[in-house]
Amino acid sequence: MAPVKSLTASVHQRLADALSATLPEAAPVDPLLRRSDRADFQANGILALAKKAKANPRELATQVVGNVDSGGVIKEIEVSGPGFLNITLTDTAIIENLAARSADSDGRLGVPFSDSPGTTVIDYAQPNVAKEMHVGHLRSAVIGDAVVQLLEFTGENVVRRHHIGDWGTQFGMLIQYLDEHPHELDHKAEAQASGEEAMSNLDRLYKAARKLFDSDEEFKTRARLRVVDLQAGDPATLAAWQKFVDESKIYFFSVFEKLDMEIRDADIVGESGYNDMLDETCRILEEKKVAVHSEGALCVFFDDVKGPDGNPVPLIIRKSDGGYGYAATDLSAIRDRVFNLKADNLIYVVDARQSLHFKMVFETARRAGWLNGEDVKAYQLAFGTVLGKDGKPFKTREGETVRLVDLLDEAVDRATTVVREKDVLGQLSDAEVAERGAQVGIGAVKYADLSTSANRDYKFDLDQMVSLNGDTSVYLQYAYARIQSILRKAGEVRPQAHPELELADAERALALHVDAFAETVAEAAGEYAPHKMAAYLYQLASLFTTFYDKCPVIKPAPPQNIAENRLFLSDVTAKTLHQGMALLGIRTPERL
Ligand code: ARG
Question: Model's pTM, two decimal places?
Answer without folding.
Answer: 0.93
